[in-house]
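Data card: per-record layout.
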Amino acid sequence: MPPNAKSEADAKPEAEPAPASEPAAELESVDQKLQETHHSKFREVDRQEQEVLAEKAEAASQRIAQVESTTRSATTEAQESTTTSLPVIKKIEHVGEVVTEVIAERTGLPTWGVVAIIILVFLVVFGIIFFCVRRFLKKRRTKDGKGKKGVDMKSVQLLGSAYKEKVQPDMEELTENAEEGDEEDKQSEQKLGRLNFKLEYDFNSNSLAVTVIQAEELPALDMGGTSDPYVKVYLLPDKKKKFETKVHRKTLSPVFNETFTFKSLPYADAMNKTLVFAIFDFDRFSKHDQIGEVKVPLCTIDLAQTIEEWRDLVSVEGEGGQLGDICFSLRYVPTAGKLTVVILEAKNLKKMDVGGLSDPYVKIAIMQNGKRLKKKKTSIKKCTLNPYYNESFSFEVPFEQIQKICLVVTVVDYDRIGTSEPIGRCILGCMGTGTELRHWSDMLASPRRPIAQWHTLKDPEETDEILKNMK
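The structure for this 471-residue chain is written out next.
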């Protein structure tokens, strides 16, 4: 083959690939465009993200700046307060050191000893303050507790008023002693006044109704020229049934109009009885003075008809049958449940010894339902009929129990060899009557206040019967 032909043949195959380079170039250009598009999009996204990040960074820097300014101001204030408080603390420490050194020099004790003493004193003072505060709070708590439990002072006063109503306005059966004579008394030269009364005997019920109507022209026994009269009504010789009218204040012509009934009194027995009207002048702080009396032997009147008449009062014969009088005070504190009895004195006691004197002492007992709960006694006063004691005794009596108890005050003649013999007795409380019941009601109506009063001693045998009825 000729050389030219070979070169042409070789040239032809090299010229054939030329058409394929054009699509590759197009692909490359498309690829470059796509890459440029992606890069531009990515650059846009990156730019937006960078803007957001820049905004966040700026906000964060602002917050940090605010926090730093706040911290800086707080630090400045703390430094200022520290700089102001440090000198005060240093001054206090310096004063303490100086005081400690001065005390150590004057007492000759080491500094640590002085410091120990100061600490001990501080602890003691703190302990005292703590104790006082605790005691105050405890008292306050106790007071509040008691208030919640409800010992109402008004209820105490109402109880006292109820006792007074029982004593004063209504008719009341009494067991008090009264003076008596073996024979009818003769009329005294001095006019003692007169008494109007009415008697009605019921044969069906065997009862005698006695009405005390009025009195007039009574003598003035008080400083003001008047009297405070009341009337005791009883039968002789037994004296078991005794009644008393209410007291009329500051009058010499009292109008009573009160009726008392002696029940279970057969007509045959009534003929052996003597009806006694004894008029007294009431005195809160001393013995009640008897103005006079009227004695009516029932055998001398006709009980078949109603009897109404006036009779003159006659004086009473000597006081030989009296047992004496005693003065004591009562004080009750409902919130604490405390009853205080102060035995003050006694006078005109009955002569018990051969020498015409006595050795008296006083026994005080709290009784309930016939049982003696507590008892106390005074000292013995030798060879006297007018002893002075002024001795105080306290009993724990809750308010719920004060209405159920009896206070028994007994004057006893001491005998070293034989048995000590009671001279007379007073009963107050739930079984009290007359002046004893008045004293008790006054005590309850005036809580926390001591109420003093004189009492006439009663026959121990009669009071024994009363105490037996408590069971």
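Known properties of this structure: The radius of gyration is 55 Å. The first helix runs from residue 3 to 15.

See the next section for split statistics.
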